[in-house]
Amino acid sequence: MLEHDFSVYLEEVCDALGVRPPDDDFEKLGRYADELGRWNQRINLMRYRDRRELVVRHLSDGLAVIPHIPRDANRIIDVGAGGGIPGVVIAILRADLEVLAVEPIHKKHAFLKTVRRTVPVPNLEPVAMRLEDPTLAEDYLGRGFDVAVSRATFPIADWLAAGRRLVSTEGLVIALEGKERAELPEGAARFPYEAEQGRTRAVIVLAPATATPAEQD
Fold it and tell me: Quick check: is 216 in a domain?
């Protein structure tokens, strides 16, 4: 059963973002948070002081991505998956997707493997590789992904350029932006959201070359 305060925080953030996970997904997000808490005592996966901050500063980023993933998507790659934001959250809420979580730091990769097993999240596939690893290209990147996403691993412009090479011709590249606004390339749109008062972040979506979405303010 979910801890009461955690459930309240999660419901508030979901309401703010317009995301409506079923009860089973709420339970899985709670088990994921439990694993984060246990592992954070041993290795630094992500910084937060309490469960509320975990929800509004971290889980919210994963939840905010969900509305931007096409319903007909099949394969998504999260590069620099770290402690699982946004890849684990996406895999929980979109069980129909194959989510490849690329994380070269072995301790973090071990955490992601544990989450896959214990939560469980069977559609999550953690791999301990770097983006430039030739084995990754040979084994996973051949067909192109429907969505490529990354959080706080690269500068926004660098990631959008790198992500474009990972997706199919109709694929999307998604980045998460903090309070510092980046200059966006043509074809990218900014979708701001506020999971807690006074703290606006944004999902950046680079559409296929055939589309040129306008910036959202």
Answer: no
Range from 45-49, 63-67, 80-84 carrying the lowest mean pLDDT:
45-49
Give Cα 140 distance to the centre of its chain: 19
Q: φ, ψ for residue 188 (rounded to 5)?
A: -100, 150
Neighbours of 34 (CB within 10 A): 16
Q: Please, which pLDDT band fits residue 79 given cuts at 50, 70 and 90? A: very high
User: How far apart (Å, rounded) are the C-alpha atoms in residues 129 and 112?
Assistant: 13
Are the CB atoms for 45 and 36 separated by under 8 Å?
yes
> What CATH number is associated with residue 8?
3.40.50.150
pLDDT tens profile 181-195? 889 999 999 999 987
Range of the domain at 195: 4-206
Count how many domains the chain has.
1
What six digits make up the tokens of 191?
A: 């979708």
**Residue 161 in tokens:** 């350029």
- Under a CB-based contact definition with an 8 Å cutoff, are residues 146 and 73 in contact? yes
